[in-house]
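Figure S4 source data
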Amino acid sequence: MPDQRFAYIPVHDLRSGRCTGVEVVPRLHHDAVAVAARDRGWDARRIAELDAGTAVSAVASARSWGAAVPVQVDVAADTVLHARGRLRAMLGGTSDPVAPLLEVGPPIAAAAPAEHLVLALAELRRWGFRIGLDGAGRAFGPELVAAVRPDVVKLEPDLCDGMLDTGTGAAVRAVVEVSRAVGAPVAATGVRDAARLTGLFAIGIAFAQGPLLGGTRAAPEADPATRAELLGLLSAMPQPAAGRAAAVRPVPGRPGPGHPAPERGGTPEPAATPVPVPAGPPVRGLAVPAVTLPDDAVGDTAREALRARPDSGGIVLVDRAHRPVGYLDRSRVLLQLAGRFGHALWAEKPAAELADPPRTVDERTPLHRAMEIGLSGDPARGYDDLVVVAPDGTCRGVVPVAELWRRAILPPAASGPRPVPVPQAARTA
């Protein structure tokens, strides 16, 4: 039974228009933990316990709807420091094989030491959580973004509203640049104005939520009309700077703009050292949440996970340390299970027997190198997702190979959002 205390805000990918998640929020303002704790003199541990319990209930409520998109939930920095163990109740269930995104906000009780927060977030990651920083540019500075390397960085509504102001716009661009350097996509919250949305998209904002994109809803699902409206708004916009190739810099000694060739008979300039080509943004900027199951899951559990997540290309099997140990491709697994006696043969057997080794790629790998990895190896697995891993080997998500191809083939102006054809009703003679 859904918990009536909570409402849901769809989060849209500005590059595709798709709804990629729902943020669970209190339905009423006075139900927020920060409001309840205000002026009551609660210490950090009491606030953390209440916040952890509320977050667990919020995720359970979203899952009770059978939502087909990943869940995002707010937690305070106090909770990460003092009650993160209680958050493990969100993990381990087969009802939702995609780990929730913890949107870590500023502390409610007192300032949290940055070094302690970084260590606590690293532990949550090892357990399998995805991590977001909520309030970057206000609550958290760019240095924390660089240290944490979150899965997403969220901008506060007041920063998004002030995008057209000189000072606020500079702060937003600083957050975007740091996030781009570490491969973390940036999301805008509270978006209510089309002009600001297009401005945010132009500087590289990847995700957005707010009244303009459907606002708060009673169920964890997006308005079907929002995607078409969003694509119509952004289809004429050029690709953000993050997706463009670096400009060619003039090389001394070679003809080019501002550097004419020497006159005939003149002394040529000495040969110049070739300008190094930038490596490009890291691949984790393209990562999407992975559908994961423990490595001892059985075939029927894998089949149910694929049914619950129809948009996923496959399942990543992970060990107790959340390191990928196998990959179940959707097409190959379902062919095995759909064959004659397939369900009887595989339903109760370990899914690992159907798995292939995961095609892993370090989260810091440049896009062009990730493409080379995607093209190498067994041609039969050429369309398997790449599994993005952190330096410690833990799973950070997957990158669909189709998205790598899209970035590599399409010109910059064409690799932004494209309109989706509307199916036409069949005509009868």
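Figure S5 source data
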Amino acid sequence: MTESLPAGDQEPNEGSPLLRQNPLGPDLEGLRAVDVTNAELEYVVESTGVALVEEAMGNGSSQQSTATDEPETEEARWLRESKLKHSKLAWYYRPSLSLLCFTVALMSLAETMVVSPSIILTTQKVCQGISPGSPSSPDKARCDMPMAQSTFSSIQSAQMLIQGIVGTLLAGKLGELSDRFGRKPIFQYVGFVRLVSILAIVYTILPSTPYSRWKIILANSVQALSGGLMLTIANGNSYITDCTEPKDRTIAISMLMSTIYACIGTGPLIGSAAIKLSSGNNYMPFVIAVVFITSFIIFTTIFLTESRHINALRQSQTKFRDRRRSFESVLTNSSSISVTRHGRYQALKILDLLSPLKKLWLPPSVHGSLIPRYTVLILVALDVLFIISTTGMVVPLVLYATYKYRLDSVHLGYFISFIGIGRAIVLLVLSPLFLHVLKKMYTRLDNSIDSIDLMSLRTAMFSVVVSIAAILVWDDTRGLILLVFAVFQNLSAFFSPTLQATLVKYCSKSSLGELFGAIALVRSATMLVFPPVLLLVYAHTNTTKPKIFMIVPLLASILAFVLTFMLHIVTDPELLRRPSQASLATSSQIAHPNKGSKDQRMSTPRTSRKLSSNNRG
């Protein structure tokens, strides 16, 4: 992901994007399905969003003009040396996009093909536990659906809590380890943990295994240690930045994300086909998934060459050691007692996990303007509200849908594929077309939110409001409202890429990894709080007013739509110039103040003048 820089700016130090773990897991008839197709797909949209939005807006054109004026950076030299070294390898060892896509496809298919059978078999296991009449025959147990819903809600709440805490703590650490030890060891670690996770899940749902809610919770929480599909995606993006020219990264990331979309949409269908071909054996997809993950580990170990330059690894290790020494200096401080020193040391280590959040509190511009800080904080608030009104509400929504409409595994698989493929179509087809139309109507800005961004954000949030209001008001008996909900939710798929691309405009290009790490922490904390709360609300109201939990997401979406009108467009680049850019105002820029004037115009100059005058005052 690259954005055009002013002349003299250095190429960003592309690091590993810090990761977000989305704390979702299996439910009675669809929580794991929602985990893969909504929560993780939202991160897929977020990961590829900046690339696709900038590509659709034609952001790559201005970069080439500045690249030739810049001296070769350390990162560019490392890339050149790595490509020269890798060119001597055989094609099947050489780091490339095709090998990466094949590797990620193995893992993605293994994850998604076990969605439906895991739901069905886990449901039967819960029925076995709550139906004492048939403890040894879970497939013949007769479920008390309201009781099963409440049981699953409590299980899911505990599981979300565990996965949320683990995911939040690992969000920055796994990204740091990727920078220090390389992308290949992280892929190997992910494969190993994912293999253990699937085997643990299979053990808990075997007919011979006694029912235990805590076994189910812990088995499904093992995958949190791997970072989920989001870690695979983020590590893949880091792999791309290591071995791809900046001008080619947009297309490369888009192709990787297209591979993920295809796997998310087709994985459940492959699992259903495996069950049919094996005469209804729900365990067959797990066998195939184990084969796929084992192949992933073997292929990564033998064929996938480390992409990160050895000097980059050493630099990351040096920074880590320097930071660790600064922490350890607290222990050697003789001015405080031992207990106090140890407490401060542990507190610093914990706070270091949250250090990326500092990137969201922007310093005043060189002219003292706080507009960038306020804009970024509003964008972060929009992201939180968007999560609450989309991913955060889907878990209890699926429970509600399975209870009211009695969805079976076949229809659930169709619904999963519809969500996955639908979001892919919106992001890859409709979103670029929509942006193309907006480009003809408005002018794009490089350093500030523009009318194109605002229209995209407002359209997406309006779609979310309509989707929740429709299912809250319309009370049909055939479940058609679920399709309406899915369609309008899918239309909001370009919200995250637009928001991420807008955030990049205000932040330093040399610390994008920390920026995305901060967003990951905020999103992870949001998912740690709101989905369990909504799930508990549904668990206590499913027999009386099952739709009452939807009120909170509806209010969140309305508030987000209103907040978009508090974002202002600024056309004066000097007003938004960061302190780190103060030395970049060269004589050539002063001599050509209108360079790129097409991108600096704005459809609302009145707002810009007002903000500029207020800032000077």
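The domain at 31-56+75-308+354-616 is CATH 1.20.1250.20 (Growth Hormone; Chain: A;). The chain has a mean pLDDT of 73.
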